Amino acid sequence: MTSLTDMPLNRSEILAMVGELFTEQMPFNKVLGLKVTQYQADVVEVRFAMKKDLLGNPVQNILHGGVTASVLDVVGGLAAIASVTDKFDGASAKTLAEKFGKMGTIDMRVDYLRPGRGNEFVATAAIIRAGNKVAVTRMELHNENGDHIAFGTGTYLVG
Amino acid sequence: MTSLTDMPLNRSEILAMVGELFTEQMPFNKVLGLKVTQYQADVVEVRFAMKKDLLGNPVQNILHGGVTASVLDVVGGLAAIASVTDKFDGASAKTLAEKFGKMGTIDMRVDYLRPGRGNEFVATAAIIRAGNKVAVTRMELHNENGDHIAFGTGTYLVG
Amino acid sequence: MTSLTDMPLNRSEILAMVGELFTEQMPFNKVLGLKVTQYQADVVEVRFAMKKDLLGNPVQNILHGGVTASVLDVVGGLAAIASVTDKFDGASAKTLAEKFGKMGTIDMRVDYLRPGRGNEFVATAAIIRAGNKVAVTRMELHNENGDHIAFGTGTYLVG
Amino acid sequence: MTSLTDMPLNRSEILAMVGELFTEQMPFNKVLGLKVTQYQADVVEVRFAMKKDLLGNPVQNILHGGVTASVLDVVGGLAAIASVTDKFDGASAKTLAEKFGKMGTIDMRVDYLRPGRGNEFVATAAIIRAGNKVAVTRMELHNENGDHIAFGTGTYLVG
Question: For A113, which of C109, C111, C129 is closest by C-beta distance?
């Protein structure tokens, strides 16, 4: 009998699986309250709401710089994974889990542009270098007013 | 009557105040469980224990990359602040709060060297460029076995 | 008698002076063959032609990565200087020389996207963080076909 | 008949070949005047002499920041190549040329610590992450007095 994890998945099922994995299975992403609100081959968006736990400066209500870095790493990682999912069309969840287990951030730069004030934050990412082994992404963080809070650049191992 | 926040502080009192501020007053540092275990003019050490909330990969018990980035930013920031505290000798808590409020991370690079496995993690930082306006620091994260998990480089506005 | 270097300059005269300084007075920029082809408050463009001396790989006719880094640093620096020239309106060449002497690159990241092939290259820069002390810029390098060769991010001391 | 480029090379012959390639075959390295003065599996040193062509600031005799970036990229690249040469033991020059043609810098960060003054400069590099696909290196530039001029961090595609 074929187990569920052996069934072939198409690209959009793979992306749905990865989005769910990031939101539901990664404890620190739950602490941050991250929601993957858009996730297709070339559109990635992650949102989260301000809450007390995420503050670095509680007097001025400013997001901790580590939260910004964390979210940029997450959204860049999602884009990097998406950039190679076309190669995985028809793979099983089991195979994919193995592939994804070898992926990871190699390095990341964060540029802090202005204090992280706001009620809701939106992180997006775009691929600037796609490859079989390495993907490079640029990420941005804005608040609900469109204020640009940070830029990121990340290099990810993808194969 | 002179209020407590107007009393002059010497350098070691200032460092004690900053260490306490980072550990006790910054909500996200409490979420991470950070302890400032050493903090003098040129030695900074931050420690934290592994716990489920900090995992990125709960199957393999690996720290979330955002936790690594967060802690490196914190320990680098502490070093950057320490690098200018000699100028603040004799300043009051009120004056210092104002000065520190203008400091912040400009940019940071994180290099992930190996998976973040371990029970306790130790982050350290050293100043590589000291200035009146900008300080640049290099940071490291190790686990309790001395495995080197990540390097960081951070540029901080300090004046 | 007022010397030429004491005469007040307006913003567009300052930019013309800086552009000329970069093109004519900096020996390494002459080695690279850099031309400042556009330089206003918020538009900066530097061009250079391919030549044998700039090759890293002479078999495949690919630009040396150091040439790419050099040009991105130059164009980012020009943008950083432009971002503070409004403060210098009416200053003399002598005063400006002193101000510019204190400016410099703090750190830079270069992302290499594809091999540097082409006959002519165009570097551009935009400010992402403007400040009295520090400016952060993003830079791009394209060839004459619009192929995107590299991205850069630079942090500059400007005051 | 076996051509010269088909003969098997051992590791030290490979390193000698690569060192010679960087010094003699790369035009821009000749412009910079780079000499590979040490090159073994885990020691890499590149030296060059000050000369007018390398100046950014000819009034103060300061190296152009692009020269610094270029040299750091070169010495980091040499270290990255060395980190995978054990896999190539016994390969021919022809095979190696093919392998090396696929290697390259993915991204690099340069931290400028102090003005590049001096008569002779020494660049060194060390591997901080070794892998089959990607190597990460840290680089340093000093002058002949041991003044530390710049740090670098580079990520290289090596397989």
Answer: C129
Degrees to nearest 5, angle at CA B54 with B53 and B60: 100
Q: What is the structure's pLDDT at D1?
A: 55
Residue C69 has pLDDT above 90, yes or no: yes
Q: How far is CA B2 from the centre of its chain?
A: 31
* This prediction's pTM: 0.96
Confidence of residue D2 (pLDDT cuts 50, 70, 90): low
Residues of C in contact with A128 (CB under 8 A): 111, 113, 151
Q: Which residues pair with B87 in a beta bridge?
A: none
What residue numbers bound the domain in which D18 lies? 4-157
Using CA atoms, how far apart are residues C17 and C134, in angstroms rounded to an integer? Answer: 22
Record: contact C133-B133, CB cut-off 8 A: yes
Measured CA to CA in angstroms, residue B132 lies from A132, D14, D107, D147 at distances of 45, 47, 29, 20
pLDDT given for residue B98 in this prediction? 87
- The ipTM assigned to this model is 0.96
Report the CATH number that the domain containing residue A122 is assigned in CATH: 3.10.129.10
Q: C-alpha angle with apex A120: B51 to C155, nearest 5 degrees?
A: 80
Contact C47/A at CB under 8 A = no
Search chain D and give the residue with CA nearest A109. Answer: D109
No. of H helices and E strands in chain A?
4, 8
**To which H or E segment does residue B157 belong?**
strand B148-157
Averaged pLDDT for residues B89-114: 93
pLDDT tens profile B102-157: 899 999 999 999 999 999 999 999 999 999 999 999 999 999 999 999 999 999 99
Chains that touch B (3 or more CB pairs under 8 A): A, C, D
Chain D environment of B111 (Cβ under 8 Å): 128-129, 136, 153, 155
Touching subunits of C (3+ CB pairs, under 8 Å) are A, B, D
Q: Which pair of structure tokens corresponds to residue B35?
A: 């302890």
Give the residue from C121, C117, C14 showing the smallest Cα distance to C60. Answer: C117
In total, how many domains does chain B have? Answer: 1
Q: Which uninterrupted H or E stretch holds D93?
A: helix D93-101
Q: Give B111's contacts in chain A (Cβ within 8 Å).
A: 106-107
Report the pLDDT value the prediction gives residue A130, as an integer from 0 to 100: 95
